[in-house]
């Protein structure tokens, strides 16, 4: 069975900010053992619905890699007349680009139809929508919900049932025998794992990785953090995500293996990025990369921030093969309804390249079905189908309709 995931990733802002006072977090009734919060799992992102200030329903990415809750759509806070207390200048994911955000205090969030409320959250509101998330992922979201907002409780992420369960500490029954405790570190509201990674020719390296539910990829390494942390010889040079200054170039290959406690993953599709840390060597907190949802969703996960504890239990996806795009196209979504699908980049020598598909081409049809009807997430899933599958496209280029076809094949 082919793993249903996509190779998109969102490189979130590395916020360099003194801790924001007053982050109270969500609360649930004192005598309730647990509360279940449903989420959508779209393009390997956990998306939670929240009502802001008893008014609008927002879609927020649940993110263990974010230090603060962030509203990326300033027009929402403007409509609600949210006052801004002060302005911050923050460093972007490239450690060079400065962005502007505003602090808003005592923002109320409610989970619809669930007795779970954050009565007075301090959040950051971006001056502009620097993420441009919809374009790259084809999913509409309004910001990021820091997992630290649930730190008052022990909580479990069940990817298969699409539920985050919050447990009152005095009522928590404890993990059952399927779960194994994995030592982690908590620093500035983020979770880090110290472990071993296996690379080509049997080399191994000790690595420190951020556990990041805000990233849709399986694994990412920063290549300038360790001489052994390098892309394999057959890695592809290509676009690997979106940064504040535009699209990010890097490499995609496979890591031979990675340990998560006593659990082992192998043949992992991995993104390799060189990041400039000369301006602030401490910005990465000594980490070599991150683990994203494409690996984390092979487990059920229990997190206890207060005691720096984490438990993992393998799900039925644990042994599935990691699959990468087999077309060679990087696609983006545009338009009001995110239904205009265009080609951002092409991997040289790939099936799409051999079919003379070019950056800037607009995908009109996949087979006989309009691309606007299928949508970006489904198209990207189709482009991971079995090698040999024939793909027929109708594209628009310079006002002309062209028909293209190619067969999928493994690229890494």
How would you explain this protein's 3D organization?
This protein has 3 domains: 138 residues, Beta Barrel (Cathepsin D, subunit A, domain 1); 135 residues, Cathepsin D, subunit A, domain 1, CATH 2.40.70; 79 residues, PDZ domain (Pdz3 Domain), CATH 2.30.42. 7% of the residues lie in helices and 44% in strands. With 412 residues, the protein is mainly beta. Strands 1-11-10-21-22-12 form a 6-stranded antiparallel beta sheet, with no helix packed on it. The protein has a 6-stranded mixed beta barrel with strand order 3-4-9-5-8-7. β7 and β8 form a beta hairpin. It has 6 helices and 28 strands. The two termini are 18 Å apart.
Summarize the structure.
By secondary structure, the chain is mainly β. The chain has helices spanning 74-79, 133-137, 293-296, 351-354, 371-374, 376-382, and strands at 34-38, 40-42, 45-52, 56-63, 70-71, 86-91, 98-110, 117-126, 143-146, 154-158, 163-167, 180-181, 185-187, 190-198, 204-211, 219-222, 236-243, 246-260, 263-273, 289-291, 299-304, 309-314, 329-334, 340-346, 362-366, 369-370, 390-397, 400-407. It has three domains: 34-171, Cathepsin D, subunit A, domain 1, CATH 2.40.70.10; 180-314, Cathepsin D, subunit A, domain 1, CATH 2.40.70; 329-407, Roll (Pdz3 Domain).
Q: Radius of gyration over alpha carbons?
A: 21 Å
Q: Roughly what fraction of the amino acids lie in strands? A: 35-45%
At the fold tier of CATH, the topology name of the largest domain is Cathepsin D, subunit A, domain 1
What helical percentage do the residues reach?
under 10%
Task: Calculate the mean pLDDT score and round it.
Answer: 87
The CA-CA distance between the termini, in Å, is 18 Å
Q: In the CATH classification, which architecture of the largest domain applies?
A: Beta Barrel
Our count of helices gives: 6
Number of strands: 28
Strand count, sense and closure of the main sheet? 6 strands, antiparallel
User: Class of the largest domain, according to the CATH hierarchy?
Assistant: Mainly Beta
What count of structural domains?
3
What coarse outline follows from CA principal-axis ratios? globular
């Amino acid at each position: 069975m082919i793993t249903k995931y996509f190779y998109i990733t969102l490189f979130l802002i590395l916020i360099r900010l003194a801790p924001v006072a007053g982050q109270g977090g969500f609360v649930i009734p004192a005598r309730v053992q647990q509360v279940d919060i449903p989420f959508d799992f779209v393009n390997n992102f956990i998306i939670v619905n929240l009502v802001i200030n008893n008014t609008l329903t927002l879609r927020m990415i649940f993110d263990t890699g974010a230090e603060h809750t962030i509203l990326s759509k300033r027009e929402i806070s403007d409509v609600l007349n949210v006052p801004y207390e002060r302005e911050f200048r923050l460093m972007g994911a490239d450690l060079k680009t400065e962005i502007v955000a505003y602090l808003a205090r005592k923002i109320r969030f409610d989970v619809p139809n669930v007795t779970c409320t954050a009565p007075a959250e301090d959040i950051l509101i971006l001056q502009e929508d620097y993420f441009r998330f919809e374009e790259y992922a084809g999913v509409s979201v309004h910001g990021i919900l820091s997992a630290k907002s649930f730190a008052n409780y022990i909580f479990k992420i069940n990817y298969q049932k699409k539920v985050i369960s919050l447990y009152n500490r005095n009522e928590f029954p404890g993990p059952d025998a399927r779960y194994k405790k994995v030592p982690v570190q908590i620093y500035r509201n983020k979770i880090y794992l110290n472990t071993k990674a296996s690379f080509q020719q049997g080399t191994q390296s000790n690595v420190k990785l951020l556990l990041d539910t805000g990233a849709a990829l399986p694994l990412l390494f920063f290549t300038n953090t360790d001489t052994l942390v390098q892309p394999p010889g057959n890695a592809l040079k290509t676009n690997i995500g979106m940064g504040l200054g535009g699209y990010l170039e890097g490499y995609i290959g496979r890591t031979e293996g990675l340990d998560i406690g006593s659990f082992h993953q192998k043949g992992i599709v991995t993104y390799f990025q060189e990041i400039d840390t000369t301006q602030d060597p401490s910005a990465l907190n000594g980490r070599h990369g991150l683990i994203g949802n494409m690996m984390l969703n092979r487990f059920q996960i229990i997190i206890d921030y207060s005691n720096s504890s984490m438990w993992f239990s393998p799900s039925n996806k644990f042994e599935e093969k990691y699959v990468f795009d087999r077309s060679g196209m990087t696609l983006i979504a545009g338009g009001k309804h995110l239904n205009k699908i265009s080609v951002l980049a092409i991997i040289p020598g790939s099936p799409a390249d051999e079919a003379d598909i070019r950056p800037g081409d607009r995908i009109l049809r996949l087979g006989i079905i309009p691309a606007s009807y299928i949508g970006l997430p489904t198209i990207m899933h189709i482009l991971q189908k079995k090698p040999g599958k024939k793909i027929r496209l109708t594209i628009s280029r310079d006002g002309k309709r062209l028909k293209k076809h190619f067969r999928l094949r493994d690229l890494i």
